[in-house]
Design brief:
157 residues; 7 helices; 0% strand; elongated
C-alpha cells in the first residue's frame, strides 16, 4: 500500500536508524492499513510483527529441539528457546501496555529484548560454527523487528 507523504517521511526516519532499511520499510508498508500512520500506528505494526516473529520462531526452535539428536545443537537451541521465550513474553506485555496507551511502560517491557535475542545470535555465530546457519535469518529478522519496535516506541510523545 502506498503511504501518504507524512507517513512515508516517518517510515524513512525510523528505517534509516535500523540496520537494514529495506526490510524495515517493506515491513511497515506491507502492514500499513489505509496508507497513513502516525508513530503510534507504526509502533503498533512493529510491535505486532515482533511478537508474531518471536512466536513463530519459538515454535520453529521447539520443532528443531524435538527432531535433533545432536547434544551440542540441542544445548544451543535451548539457549535460543529461552531467549525467544523472553522476547515473546516481553512483546506480549508490550502489546498489552500498548492497548492501554501506556507507551512508557511498553518501551520498558521491550528494553530487555535485544540482549535476550543476542544470546541466541551469539551462540550460533561464535566460532567454531558447529551448526548450519539454521537460525541466521530468523535472528536477523528478529533483531531488526526489535529495533523497529523500540525505535518507533521511542518516537511517541
Amino acid at each position: 500500500m502506498a503511504a501518504d507523504s507524512a507517513t512515508e517521511a516517518r517510515i524513512d526516519t525510523l528505517c534509516h536508524q535500523i540496520e537494514e532499511f529495506g526490510f524495515c520499510s517493506q515491513t511497515f508498508h506491507q502492514n500499513l492499513k489505509g496508507g497513513s500512520a502516525d508513530y503510534v500506528g507504526l509502533t503498533q505494526i512493529a510491535t505486532n510483527q515482533a511478537y508474531s516473529n518471536a512466536t513463530n520462531t519459538l515454535g520453529y526452535i521447539e520443532q528443531l529441539l524435538r527432531s535433533t539428536t545432536d547434544p551440542a545443537l540441542k544445548n544451543d537451541l535451548i539457549v535460543c528457546e529461552n531467549a525467544f521465550r523472553i522476547v515473546k513474553q516481553a512483546f506480549g506485555e508490550a502489546l498489552r501496555l500498548f492497548s492501554q496507551r501506556d507507551y512508557r511502560g511498553m518501551l520498558s517491557a521491550e528494553r530487555p529484548t535485544p540482549r535476550a535475542q543476542a544470546s541466541c545470535d551469539v551462540i550460533f555465530s561464535t566460532p567454531p560454527a558447529r551448526h548450519s546457519p539454521i537460525m541466521d535469518e530468523r535472528n536477523r529478522e528478529m533483531r531488526i523487528l526489535i529495533a523497529m519496535a523500540i525505535t518507533s516506541s521511542s518516537n511517541i510523545h
